[in-house]
Amino acid sequence: MSPGVYNTVSPAELEAGVTRPSIPLEEFPPSSTHSSNAPSRPLRSVGQRWTASDILPVTSDERASVTVERLESYPPGYPRTACFLDSDPAFMVYRRFGTVSARLLLNKQDELRELEQLLNVMDNQSAKTSEGLSALSSRELDEHENFGKKQTRTQLLKVMEQRYLEYSHLLAHAKQNAAISKPKISEYTSLQNFLNNYKPLVRSEMEWIQNRDDLVTLRPGRPPSHLEAFLGRAIQTMGFRSFKYLFVNQRSHMKTSDPSIRYYSRKRVERAATILLIPIMLSFIVVPIWMLTVTFRWTHLGYAIAIITVSNLLFCSMLSIFTKARRHEVLGAGAAYCAVLVVFMSNIR
To answer: Would you state the torsion angle of the CA atoms of residues 180, 186, 192, 194, taken in this order, to the nearest 10 degrees?
Structure first.
């Protein structure tokens, strides 16, 4: 097939040796939706794959055209409130309705209890006769003996099955809702400030924010560490403008023009926390080793053991406060840290 010619042949026809008349590309009218100045991709014949060099790179104009939902683009009320809740994972706070869930579970539970008692009564009545005992031993015989009656054991079991499925559905959802994390104080305060300052809804429909014990957060992943929360408060306290270019990316800055609503990049805060943790971690290695070296030269062995104990306690406390490490992770890291100091102490002796 020559350049500038398009051949309408399927892969199956190519394998069978079937050919069709080629159509010049000039006969196809140019598309009205594309600019003539747009870069064109090289043509490929049927069955030939694209390579990485054939894919056009994304230009800076295409990157700048990424749509960012702004709060001001939504009308006040529920539209703007919904946009605010979806603008950052920290604001995704909603009610769990734990009391309503418990009430529904209790209602379905009592319905099952009533049906269970009725089933026990029917079983006890059937057990008093020989025919009833036979019916209890065979499902098919039970359905045949009670066919045409107003209420049979089979009908009762079908009703119980429906109630049990509804009860299990509520029970599973209640378990899932109970496992959802609760919002941190900073997340709750941010949402409360937005509702109290802007009052986007009527008063009666904003009272759900007062049910703090019933609130859950849909924020994915683990909650921010204490160090990350401290950096977030520092950004707000020390002045947002001075940290604008360090902790705010372009997308966060485009979400709103309101100076009282502040967004910052969570990834950049996590990186800053990691940078701060590096010298702290190094100091927990260098300082105890230096102190142990000095202690063995001038003092008794008991002081060295005290240094190891205090350093291990401070190290575990630092992991618990400044990181997202879990309890077993803190214990494992503390044991490894203590082992390092003990090995060093035994070598310098």
So the answer is: -120
- What CA–CA distances, in Å, run from 46 to 9, 12, 20, 93? 7, 10, 13, 53
DSSP three-state, residue 219: coil
pLDDT digits (tens, 9 = 90+) for 70-120: 888 889 999 999 999 988 888 899 999 999 999 999 999 999 999 999 999
Whole-number Å distance between alpha carbons of 143 and 253: 71
What's the pLDDT at 110?
Answer: 96
Residue 126's pLDDT band (cuts 50, 70, 90): confident
Q: Give the chain's end-to-end CA distance (angstroms, integer).
A: 83
* CA 199 from centroid of its chain's CA atoms: 28
Residue 91 and residue 81 in contact, taking contact as beta carbons nearer than 8 Å: no
Q: Which two tokens stand for residue 262?
A: 């502040």
Taking 60 as the threshold, does the pLDDT of residue 285 lie above it? yes
DSSP assigned state of 238: S
Task: Return the biggest CA–CA distance within the chain.
Answer: 100
Residue 123: CB partners within 8 Å, gap ≥ 6?
A: 136, 153
Q: What is the pLDDT of residue 26?
A: 43
CA nearest to 324, candidates 274, 263, 272: 274
- Provide the whole-model pTM: 0.60
pLDDT at position 65: 54
Phi, psi of 275, deg, nearest 5 = -65, -40
Encoded tokens for 194:
């937005």
Residues with Cβ within 8 Å of 241's Cβ and at least 6 positions away in sequence, in order, are: none
Q: What DSSP line would sit under 193-216, residue for residue?
A: HHHHHH--S-GGGSGGGG-GGGEE
